[in-house]
Records
---
Amino acid sequence: MAAAVVLGGGLTGLVAAERLSAEGIEAPVFEREPEAGGACRSIERDGFTFDFTGHLLHCARPETEGYLRDLGVWDELAVHQRRAAVVVGGRQTPYPIQIHTAALAPAVRRDCLLGFIRAWARQERDGGEPADFSRWVLERFGDGFARHFFVPYNEKLFRARAEELSLDWVGRYVPKPTLEEVVDGALGLHDQPVGYNATFRYPRRGGIRLLPDAVARRVPRLHLSSRVAALHLGERWIELADGGRVRFNRVVSTLALPSLVDLIVGGLPEEVAAARAALRWVRVLNVALGVEGEAPSPEHWLYFPDRELPFYRVGFPSNHGRLAPAGCHTVSIEVSLDPGGVEVAAEAAAAERAAAALGLLDPAKVRLRVQTVIDPAYVVFDHHRRQAVATLRGFLGERDVLLAGRWAEWKYSAMEDAILDGMAVARRLSGGR
């Protein structure tokens, strides 16, 4: 019987198993795909390298750096200053838009500046905590920023109305500037980096798979192409798709929370089934293209709040990594989709046509196409999520199933968090060592 069984060989699961192994604790990993890494993988074809979707390392914690140095990959990660922009009404301005409105159309700039000043004045008088994302944006940034960027962009990304979204996810991901910064930004005077992703690290070569591959080499019992078919909590064993059985003392699950619950055999209490049904998410279609010639933009990525465009973000990954043959570049087009049977090929074709219409792509120069779907991709932070997750976490925790990582804990987090989550659950299982 294994001391702990790790479900899912993404970055969090690999780090958890590697740390447990270093403490002498047996922790086999079961991963359904033929290679480790989960969403943190790269595809190499005809000289091009494509990540499954945008993966950049924003390293803020010393323990993360220490761990990556120990793995021997730290010096392979080049440091980049973020070059990102937002496209509003056909005009491009640096990200974050809050402090970079000078390049926008005068009417848009006026809307944003006046709206922010009015919101700032109201906050000085009223204070209080808004109830949803729509109200939060209006009170924090004003109606101009809300109308031109925050509401349409996030409604496109999460495929939900802004009023349906809670505030559980904003935090460090949506920084609030000062009044002086907004005014400076409207006058073109702001030039300081802002946000948690102002700088990032990325492998000098080979794509983001460098990180999970380095961890996987230290995991002694990594079982690939091993899909878990059922989870028998009462009897403490998992059933694999090939008919194999593995007994356990505890489970570390990095699987998406709905998928994990769906594996449980024997029926669920009514409140647990209701919590599972309450979870919402979106898929992301990533259209990755290998294209001849130089990239049409020096930016690393561009945000598109325009509701008429099918994609929310377009990136040029070869601007920050050696991911294309000489004389070529890569393009990444990201489209948010509801769960279910949307025709991916039609969505991908529409995204390419829209990118070409904006001058971001020359269809005649496309040499290679790779389409991947991340499912789930983004958790929808609606007003039911927090209680639903608490109910499921409590039910599973009472049965020695620990949740670790972005999709298992049903949250929004970055790559550094994935590493830290794996380290944290390993410490918990090893008694804090």
---
Amino acid sequence: MQQLSSPPPAPGPRLAHPLGGLSAPRLVVSALLLAMLLSCRFYEETIYTWLDTAWQWVNQVLPATTHLDKVAGSNLGALMERPHKAVSALLFAGSYVALSLGLLVALLPAGEGWRWGLRLYGGIGLVSAALLLAGHAAGLPLLTDLASRLLHGLLSLLPVMVLVPLLRWPGLRAPR
């Protein structure tokens, strides 16, 4: 007599990988970048003081660099709502955005971190610059204030906290 066997059970949904599908090196790099970003925010005034001092030293060694301060003027300091030199603010912002882009690249699948990060940071940067120029040209402080708020949002963990879950959530990604 032949035994009838039932078909094997259909595979159920797979359990999510405990590390979100990240390899151990990517996880370590992500943790280090996140710690650096948080440290930048905790020690922001100390970093600005160091950058201001370093820029003052550069101005003494290379007097031609004082023109950069005159070109930027006080508009950038007023925009960032901090009494720091424009070059220091630009260096801090550039470093923070670079660390954020690095974190996006480490946390997102191949190529998506750069693509989405550059779109987001570039788009918000361009909109902020356009609002700043329009506000300055038209004499509308409301546009300048809006540009300042956009830049403050850009220099936070908010873009990373929004992009990573959205782009890693499989249900939101289009099938390839």
---
Amino acid sequence: MGIVSWIVFGLIAGLLAKFVMPGDDGGGFIKTTLIGVAGAMIGGFVGTRLGFGDVTGFNLRSFAIASAGAVLVLWLYRTIKKS
């Protein structure tokens, strides 16, 4: 996937992560996109290592992996921010 695709996919995954885990994070569009892109990359890495597949394009499995990674990154961000 190209960089623009990663950004769009990351934005969607980040928005879903914020929907699943609402909170007062601030940062807006940029932070949501960065969390989503990081989540998609981490989700793809972990998903590949665990045998679930990787983020290969705009399909349902890639979206689920990227979204799960974005939720994980958001949770880690909030945990680190608290301490």
